[in-house]
Amino acid sequence: MDVTGLGKTYKVPVREAGLKAALKSLVRREHREVHAVSDLSFSIERGEMVGFLGPNGAGKTTTLKMLSGLLHPSSGQARVLGYEPYRRDRNFLAQITLVMGNRNQLQWDLPVVDSFEMNRAIFGIARPDFEATRDELIDLLEIGHLVTKPVRNLSLGERMKAEICGSLLHRPQVLFLDEPTIGLDVTMQKRIRTFLAEYNARYGATVMLTSHYMADVTALCKRVIVIHHGKLLYDGPLSELAERFETSKTIGVTLAEPDRDLSGYGEVVAVDGARVTLRVSRAEASTVAARLLADLQPTDLTIEDPPIDDVIERVFATPDEPGSAQPTGKQRG
Amino acid sequence: MSSTDTTAPPATSPPPLQRVGRLRQMADFYATVSRTAVQEQFQYRAANYMYMIGMVVEPVIYLVVWSVVAEASGGSVGGYTPGGFAAYYIVWMLVRNMNIVFTPYGWEFRIREGQLSGMLVRPIHPLHYDLAYFAGWKVIAVLLWIPIAVVLALLFPPELSVNLAQVATFFVAIWGAYVIRTLLLFVLGMVTLWTTRVAALFELYFTAELLLSGRLVPLDLMPDWVLLWVDWLPFRSTFGFPIEALVSNLSGPELVRGLVAQLVWIAVGWALAMVVWKRAIRRYSAVGN
User: Fold this and answer.
1) Residues in A touching B3 (Cβ below 8 Å)
2) Sign of dihedral through CA atoms A218, A220, A223, A226?
3) How many A×B Cβ pairs under 8 Å?
4) Closest-CA distance of chain B to residue A265, Å
5) Shortest CB distance from A121 goes to which of B4, B14, B29?
6) Whether residue A300 sits in one domain with residue A173
7) Which residues lie below 8 Å from residue A135, measured CB to CB, with a gap of 6+?
8) With contacts defined as CB-CB under 8 Å, which chain A residues touch B36?
9) Do residues B132 and B84 lie in contact, with contact meaning Cβ atoms separated by under 8 Å?
10) Which end of chain B is more exposed for a tag (fewer CB within 10 A), N or C?
11) CA-CA-CA-CA torsion sign (A290, A296, A300, A303)
12) What are the pLDDT digits (tens) for A265-305?
């Protein structure tokens, strides 16, 4: 998958409040251009699982829609499996899938198996292969007991599993997954993550995943692409994201003698009995740790990056100014 | 571009799925979607019957009014006796049910609910889905029409004398009407992608169709200047012609001319649908779905 300078601009009507503005808009409509995605470039190799991150309105879904052929780009170029997605070539569509966590593509009033049958016909899958793939996916997702129930009688989590199963019956080579675990409980999220990892391993499929649950991303993706205000902010290993955006580290220290004031070593974030958590600048972390070891002889000391959710929060808080968010580290594209 | 994080495809990737040829795929697709429509509509038997009974009201009103007019006019109007009107409006009901297609009003729902997005990432044009789905629905429509037609025939005895050519033409023409109406309303529905306030335009179309198709009144009863318009518009092909093929004594050449007109409108409708679809879909923003 190769994306070069991809952009999408929407023209949206604008008008001020009030009757006067309403009358004025009858004669002359004013529009404003909204740049949902700007100059986005990256490449994804076959078989990669990439987390696609960004706050609400960052342009993630718009990008996925352009890559799956739903939207025409306003600028730039995308090639997926050698095809230009917006042309929606039949052979291209037969090799991809787009799963949107908040949308249902199954036949609402019919048993799940009937929707699967419909997908067999849509993708022209030979029956023996269809049945083998269907049964394999049903096993992997553990939905054997659900498939004879009408879709409308399934819970949200059950429906999502059935939805994913239906979306993969044609064994797509590229999976665009937009919030596939949204609204699901922790157990169900974990089951879907396990399944996706298994599918990727079994079929070597490329996966591009957006999720607001960082657990999805950390469990599945070594690489993340972060966008904000439609622009690329970071593209590289998830493990290096903290180095790029996080200016602090967390030192956890278990004291031999509790109730010591450690504010002189850094910002005290939490105290739990003899365990004290400090936040110190990344550059000083090793020096502070050495001082703590020398001064206090603690029974335990750890130096960690902050939780990934905190890192992401900091990434999204990055101001959108020219030059302020140039990707570093393992830049791609 | 290289990546050190790339997960290499497994060495023992399973073989690609076997797919059937395009022609077989399309035949299978039509059969499967039609079957699905039948299954879905069977879920709503009572609702369908209510819908059907609601649809009886319109032709029965026309039938009663025209029967009274015919009797008051010495037994017939424009060659239609009360029995002729009964035949016309009983067949009318079947044709009306046969030419129910995806409504242009449905496009707004389809877009808002994300159904269009789902359709666009599948390797089959949405038009095929609509054609196949509503074709399946006809099975239910015909099954429900039969008892209603029997009751109406008992209440309003029809005068119907048909030959084999008329029956054959009728069966081809009702499907022709269905395809033309699907294509034209598909094109009309596409307007939704340019502007969301499309109800007025749809109403204008349906009013023209009501007046110029043979739905409100048999076209034989229309003045000549209206018939001049009728010849240049598609509405007769979607409604009046199939009915006339069965109940009017059209000659062989007239039957053929009607079928040719249907073919022309199918070609025009298909070309229009393809051109408009290509432009409309560029405007699709898929926002929020």
Assistant:
1) 43-45, 48, 223, 332
2) negative
3) 133
4) 37
5) B29
6) no
7) none
8) 107, 110, 114, 117-118
9) no
10) N
11) negative
12) 988 888 888 889 988 888 888 899 999 888 888 889 988 87
Q: Min CA distance, B194 vs chain A (Å)? A: 12
| Distance from C-alpha of B246 to C-alpha of B149, rounded to nearest angstrom | 15
Residues A255 and A180 reside in one and the same domain? no
A65: helix, coil or strand? helix
Q: Do A103 and B22 touch (CB under 8 A)?
A: no
What is the domain range of residue A266?
Answer: 247-304
B121 closest CB neighbour out of A93, A117, A133? A93
Q: Does A257 touch chain B (CB under 8 A)?
A: no
| Average pLDDT of the residues in B45-73 | 85
Contact between B18 and A125 using a beta-carbon 8 Å cutoff: yes
Return d(Cα A141, Cα B175) in angstroms, integer: 43
Give me the number of domains chain A comprises: 2
pLDDT, tens only, B179-221: 999 999 999 999 988 877 788 889 999 999 999 999 988 998 8
Mutate to test the interface with A, among B6, B33, B121 (most CBs of A within 10 A): B121
HSE (CB half, 13 Å, CA atoms) of A68?
31
pLDDT at A298: 87
Across the interface, do B18 and A48 touch by the CB < 8 Å criterion? no
Four-residue CA torsion sign, A250, A182, A195, A100? negative
Put the strands of the sheet holding A174-178 in their side by side order: A96-100, A174-178, A206-210, A49-53, A223-228, A231-237
Cβ neighbours of residue B159 closer than 8 Å, sequence gap 6 or more = B81, B83, B84, B86, B87
Q: How many residues does chain B have?
A: 289
Q: Is A87 on the interface with B (CB under 8 A)?
A: no
Domain identity same for A272 and A186: no
Distance from CA of A295 to the nearest CA of B (A): 41
Q: In this predicted structure, what is the pLDDT of residue B287? A: 59
- pLDDT for B284 equals 84
Distances (CA, A) of A100 to A91, A94, A224: 21, 17, 19
ipTM above 0.85, yes or no: no
Rounded Cα distance, A50 and A211, in Å: 11
> Which one-letter DSSP state was computed for residue A35?
E
Average pLDDT over residues B67-75: 89
Query: What CATH code is carried by the domain that includes residue A94?
Result: 3.40.50.300
Angle at B151 between CA B150 and CA B153, to 5 degrees: 65
Residues A189 and A132 in one domain: yes
Q: By the CB < 8 Å criterion, does A114 face chain B?
A: yes
Residues lower than pLDDT 70 in chain A: 26, 318-333
Residues A209 and A237 in one domain: yes
Burial of A29 (0-12, 13-18, 19+ CB in 10 A): exposed
Please indicate whether, in this complex, the C-beta atoms of A45 and B31 are within 8 angstroms of each other: no
Record: contact B120-A201, CB cut-off 8 A:
no
Q: Are residues A63 and A185 in the same domain?
A: yes
